[in-house]
Amino acid sequence: MVRYRGDGSAGRKPILLLGHMDVVDARSEDWERDPFTLIEESGYFFGRGTSDNKMGVSMLTTTFLRLKAEGFVPTRDPTDAEFALNSDGGGRSMDESGKPASYLIQASEKTYATFELTTALKNIEAYRFPVMVNDAILLYLKATAAYGTDGKEIRAAGIPTYGVAGLFMKDSDQFAHGLNERVQVRSFFGALDHWKALLTRLAGHPAT
Known about the structure:
Layout: E1 15-18, E2 39-41, E3 44-46, H1 54-69, E4 83-86, E5 91-94, E6 100-104, H2 122-126, H3 135-144, H4 151-156, E7 161-163, E8 168-169, E9 182-184, H5 185-203
Parallel strand pairs: 1-4, 4-7, 5-8
Antiparallel strand pairs: 2-3, 3-9, 5-6
Helix pairs in contact: 1-5
């Protein structure tokens, strides 16, 4: 855990920033390039974790170093977080021509809950509902089955958490957890600017 101390002048609670360094396994023999060596090629960074989620940790670390070098002092400083920003959620999409298409903020995610039903509902608890699926459900499960972030743990602790990865990606470049994971170099550096702008806006002195 890293704390970037502020001056507390805003009188507001700090922001918690999230990222994780673990990645999905990769078999070197299955990849076109060594998955554990960062390779820049044809306008892309290739390697396991370039999008999920060593990218997020790199964003936060680089932004902190950048802000520190520029003398930035946050206006927030008490210890309990007001909210959290998750580098492993949300994101930005672009079409196949490279034109920005959407900016996505993750405010929740799928999870599970366990309930102990009252005696009056034991019959319902015991009943096994038949499995019913349609094409829409199958597409949703295929798209989200492997997706979950650390944000669910922070939300469970009562801290509002928003996924704001800030990385523009094409649908055809979505290889997180898959072979030949990659991100566009220009999108990577654009996301760095996104994080700087976001943090200086939320925790900086108003522009004069």
